[in-house]
Structure formats: structure tokens, C-alpha cells
Amino acid sequence: MPLGKILSLVAAGLFLLSGTALGEEAVTFAHYNVENYLEMNRRDGGQALFGPKPEREKKVLVRIIKEIHPDILGVAEMGPPDQFQEFQKRLKDVGLEFPFSEYVSGADPDRHLALLSRFPIVERHSAKTLFFDLNGQREPVERGFLDVIIEVNPAFQLRVVGAHLKSKLAVQSGEALLRRNEARLLREHIDGALAADPKVNLLVYGDFNDTKDQPAIQEILGPREGANRLKEILLTDAQGDRWTYYRQLSDTYDRIDYILADKALLPRIDPSRSYLYRSIDWYSASDHRPVVIVIRAE
In 3D, which of 127, 111, 29 has the Cα closest to residue 76? Predict the structure, then answer.
């Protein structure tokens, strides 16, 4: 077995066991862009066809999720409800059962946000219909925002906000400007959550389709000296790399998937058990890699 694969499995096992060994309740949260878990036009073996995500990709995808063994899983690029149900069944078949879920269908007819949880979802605040004005045009936030409150135990609730911002594919209006406006509305949504409960344990995650030096990311984080600025959780894989996405067209690696925390949640995150997934065959499942954090919920 390749060394990278061995390191990944060993690390995942240690993360799972360490919470129990310390006698604490530890929650594993993962965000994963699963790359087009839907029926669409594809090329397979040089042939054009219309079909679902290939079986070989699904098998690797499910195996990776099983290795992570998350308690809460945020997903981007999920297909329509029937594909989401099929995804849930595949996870259940390998021993990953999530009784609670949230599914957000925005303006994008194909790609959606979803979340699976072992713990009860006690409040739902997802926003599916959002618009902004750009150059005289009314533009939608294509995937909306996922927003739920999860009760891990009677003493600890976690508010989870997920997003998948405009991709880097060029459009007439300018993809960067569209993404910046989506980021602005996401920040307004975050500010609303913090205004409603300044002590909330807030986790914000997603595929933001931009690197940390770009305006969209700074918009989401909030004013640098502001009381409600979020903190990005810097994660590395077993070899110390930080990238989360490979773009074949430009042959580039970037970190565009994020987990952010507010000041209430930040002390609960265990950096020693949080990581960026790595295996030799990660690209067989998706063009993104999962990001994983462990939260102390005692």
C-alpha cells in the first residue's frame, strides 16, 4: 500500500479514537465538494454520454468519507433529490447513517448544497432565494446558503452555515464580480446570525471558489478589526500541503475550500486532530479534497 494512503488511514484512525481516549465528546465535521453528483453530459473513455457520476468515482468517494467517518458532513455539488437519496443509501450501506439532513436547492438547477448529521437539527434558517443587482441586472445567488442549528448535546449547539460561491468559469457579467456579491450577501447572513445570538457557536464552510488574498474571501471573514470577524482554520495534509482543489484546465492547485469559526467556537476546535484529507487516489473521486475539523463538545 502506498505510504500516503497508509498515513491517511492511520491519521483518520487516531482522530477517531483520540476523543474517546480523552473521555470527551468530540464532533468531527467535514466539508466535501463531491464534483457533479448528478446526471449530466460526460466523457467516458473518449465517448460522449449523458449519465450519473460514474460508479468507479462513487466507490472512491464513499470510501474516503468512510475513512473520515464524520459526525456532520457538508456537501457541495449534490444533484437533485433522487441523487441525494442514493448518496445517503450508499453511505448507510457502509455503516455511515445520518438520521438528519438539510438540502438546499437554489437558482442553479443542477448543483445543490446538502448536509448530513448524526445529531438532531433543531432549527433551519437556510436561504434559497437571494438576489443582488449588478450593472442593472438582477442576479441570483446560484446555490443559496445552507444554515442549520444542530444540537450535539443538551449543553452544546452548533450553528452551521454552508455556501458554494460562483465558479471561476467566465460569464458575460464577470465571474469575480458575481462571486464578490454572493460573498457580500453571505457576510450579511453571517452578521444576522451573530446579531441574533452573539454567543453562538458558528461554523461557516464551503467551496468559495477563491484564494484567501481575494476580495470575496475577505468579505466573508469580515472587517479585520471587527468584533465579528471570523477566523479561518488553516489545515494541512499528512505532507504539509494546504491545497484543496486541482484545476485540470490550468494545471493548478489552490486552496478554495474553507472552514471558518467565530470567536465562541474557535477555542473548541482541536487543531491537533483537524486535517486536510490526502490519499493517492483522491482525484478518482472529485477534483476537491475534504477538509476536516474536530470540535470539543463537552
Answer: 111
